[in-house]
C-alpha cells in the first residue's frame, strides 16, 4: 500500500507496512515502480504492529537528517527521510492499520510534508495535522452509499493559499524556505531588552531539568560515559599543561592546569547544570600564554601578576556580556568565522615548529671543515685547564686535590 507525491521542492513516497507479530511483510524491489519515481524523491516509511508485552500504544515520528538508504525497508531503493512507528497491544491491529494509512495520506499532502520537514517539536506536527483536517472533506460512514460514485472537482484547488496563511506555533510559515544547517535563531539567542534577561530565562528553562541531569547519571549505563569524559578532559589538560610549562618556564605547568581545570569544571557543572560539558586547555590558550609570557619577559613584568589581572578583567567582561544579552550576536557567526580562527591557530603552530627547526642549526651547528680522509685519526685527550672555573677550584679544595697531582693523560671522557 503506497502513494506517490511529487512537488518542485520535496518529493516523497509514503508507504504503510503492515506488521503481523512476529512476522514483517516486505515487498520485493519493484524496478518498474522505480521508473515512475521522479529524481530526488525521498521515502517515508510507516510501520505499525502489535506486541504481546505492550499495555498501551507507543508512537514515534522520526525525521532523519540527512536521508539514509535503509535496505529492505522500502519497496524501491531510495533514501528514507521519515519513519513513523506505531506499536500497540494485541487486538487492535485494524485500528493501527487505519492510523498508518492516515499518516501515509498525510505525507502525500504538499503542505503537511513541508511542515514535517521544518517542525521543531510535537506542537508543530499537531498544528499541521489540524490544518490538514480543516481542508479535508469528510464523509460520515453511515450517511453515504459506497456504490455511488463521487464526482471529482473540476479544478484541483491551489495550495499556495494554505502555504501563505498557515502559521506554525514556533512562528514559521509553511512553505517558507529555511536553511536547516544555518538555523541559529532559537529562543536562547533572542534579545530580551532587560539586564540579565537572558540569564533569568536560562534559569527558568533549565530549572525543571537541573536535578534530572544528575539523577539520570546514577546508572551503570553511564559508567562508560564517565570514563570517556574523564579521559577526554584529562588528556588535553595534561598535554597542554606540559606545553605551558615549557613555554612559561615552569610558571604554569601540568599541575596548575589540572587544578584549574578541576575547579572550573566543577563550578561550571554545578552552576550551569551541564555536567557533560568538556572544559580544558586548548590551542588558542597555549598560543596566548606564549605571547603573554614573551611580552612580560621583554618588558620585565611579573607574568603571574599580569595573568591574574587578565583573569579578573575577563570575568568582568563576561559578566558584562551576560548582562547585555550579547550572546545573541552568536547568530551572526558562520562556519567561515570558525574555520578562519582555526586556520590562524594552525598557522601559528606551524610557524613555531619551523622556527624551532631553524634554531636547531644555531644550537647544534654542522662542522663543515672536517677532512674525511683523516676522520678516523682524530683523538681526544684531557689537559690541565689554564683558567679553571670557580666551581672546579672549590671542588679541588674540598677534596684536597692539586692540579699537579692529577695524571691528565690517563683520564677518560665518558659520553
Do you know the CATH architecture of the largest domain? 3-Layer(aba) Sandwich
Major sheet description: 6 strands, mixed
What is the CATH top level name of the largest domain? Alpha Beta
Q: Tell me the name of the CATH homologous superfamily of the largest domain.
A: Mannitol-specific EII, Chain A
Summarize the helix and strand pattern as letters.
Answer: EEEHEEEHHHHHHHHHHHH
Structural class category: alpha/beta
- Helix percent reads 40-55%
CATH topology of the largest domain, by name, is Mannitol-specific EII, Chain A
Instruction: Write down the domain tally.
Output: 3
Q: Which residues sit in consecutive blocks of at least 5 with pLDDT less than 50?
A: 1-27, 167-183
Determine Rg (CA atoms, Å): 36 Å
Report mean pLDDT, rounded to a whole number. Answer: 77
Secondary structure: number of strands: 6
Shape: elongated
Give a short synopsis of this structure.
The chain has 415 residues and is of the alpha/beta class. The chain folds into 3 domains: 2-165, Mannitol-specific EII, Chain A, CATH 3.40.930.10; 213-350, no CATH class; 374-410, no CATH class. It has 13 helices and 6 strands.
Amino acid at each position: 500500500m503506497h502513494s506517490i507525491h511529487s512537488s518542485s521542492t520535496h518529493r516523497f513516497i509514503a508507504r504503510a507496512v503492515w506488521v503481523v507479530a512476529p512476522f514483517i511483510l516486505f515487498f520485493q524491489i519493484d524496478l518498474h515502480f522505480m521508473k515512475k519515481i521522479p529524481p530526488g524523491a525521498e521515502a517515508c516509511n510507516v510501520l505499525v504492529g502489535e506486541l504481546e508485552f505492550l499495555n498501551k500504544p507507543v508512537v514515534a515520528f522520526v525525521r532523519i537528517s540527512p536521508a539514509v538508504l535503509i535496505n529492505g525497508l522500502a519497496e524501491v531503493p531510495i533514501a528514507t527521510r521519515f519513519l513513523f512507528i506505531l506499536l500497540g497491544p494485541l487486538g487492535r491491529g485494524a485500528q493501527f492499520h487505519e492510523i498508518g494509512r492516515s499518516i501515509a495520506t498525510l505525507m502525500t499532502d504538499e503542505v503537511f510534508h513541508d511542515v514535517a520537514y521544518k517542525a521543531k517539536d510535537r506542537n508543530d506536527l499537531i498544528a499541521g495535522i489540524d490544518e490538514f483536517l480543516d481542508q479535508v472533506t469528510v464523509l460520515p460512514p453511515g450517511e453515504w452509499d459506497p456504490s455511488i460514485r463521487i464526482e471529482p472537482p473540476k479544478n484541483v484547488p491551489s495550495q499556495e493559499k494554505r502555504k501563505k496563511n498557515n502559521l506554525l506555533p514556533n512562528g514559521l510559515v509553511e512553505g517558507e524556505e529555511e536553511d536547516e544547517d544555518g538555523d541559529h535563531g532559537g529562543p536562547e539567542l533572542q534579545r530580551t531588552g532587560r539586564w540579565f534577561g537572558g540569564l533569568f530565562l536560562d534559569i527558568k528553562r533549565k530549572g525543571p531539568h537541573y536535578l534530572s541531569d544528575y539523577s539520570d547519571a546514577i546508572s551503570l549505563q553511564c559508567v562508560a560515559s564517565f570514563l570517556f569524559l574523564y579521559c577526554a578532559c584529562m588528556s588535553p589538560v595534561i598535554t597542554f599543561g606540559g606545553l605551558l610549562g615549557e613555554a612559561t618556564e615552569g610558571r604554569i605547568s601540568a599541575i596548575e592546569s589540572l587544578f584549574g581545570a578541576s575547579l572550573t569544571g566543577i563550578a561550571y557543572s554545578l552552576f550551569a547544570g551541564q555536567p557533560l560539558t568538556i572544559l580544558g586547555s586548548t590551542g588558542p590558550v597555549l598560543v596566548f600564554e606564549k605571547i603573554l609570557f614573551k611580552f612580560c619577559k621583554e618588558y620585565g613584568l611579573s607574568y603571574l601578576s599580569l595573568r591574574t589581572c587578565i583573569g579578573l578583567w575577563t570575568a568582568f567582561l563576561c559578566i558584562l556580556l551576560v548582562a547585555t544579552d550579547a550572546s545573541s550576536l552568536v547568530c551572526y557567526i558562520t562556519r567561515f568565522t570558525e574555520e578562519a580562527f582555526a586556520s590562524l591557530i594552525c598557522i601559528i603552530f606551524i610557524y613555531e615548529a619551523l622556527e624551532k627547526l631553524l634554531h636547531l642549526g644555531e644550537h647544534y651547528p654542522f662542522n663543515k671543515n672536517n677532512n674525511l680522509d683523516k676522520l678516523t685519526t682524530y683523538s681526544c685527550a684531557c689537559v690541565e685547564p689554564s683558567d679553571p672555573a670557580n666551581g672546579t677550584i672549590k671542588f679541588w679544595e674540598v677534596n684536597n686535590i692539586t692540579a699537579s697531582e692529577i695524571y691528565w693523560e690517563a683520564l677518560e671522557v665518558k659520553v
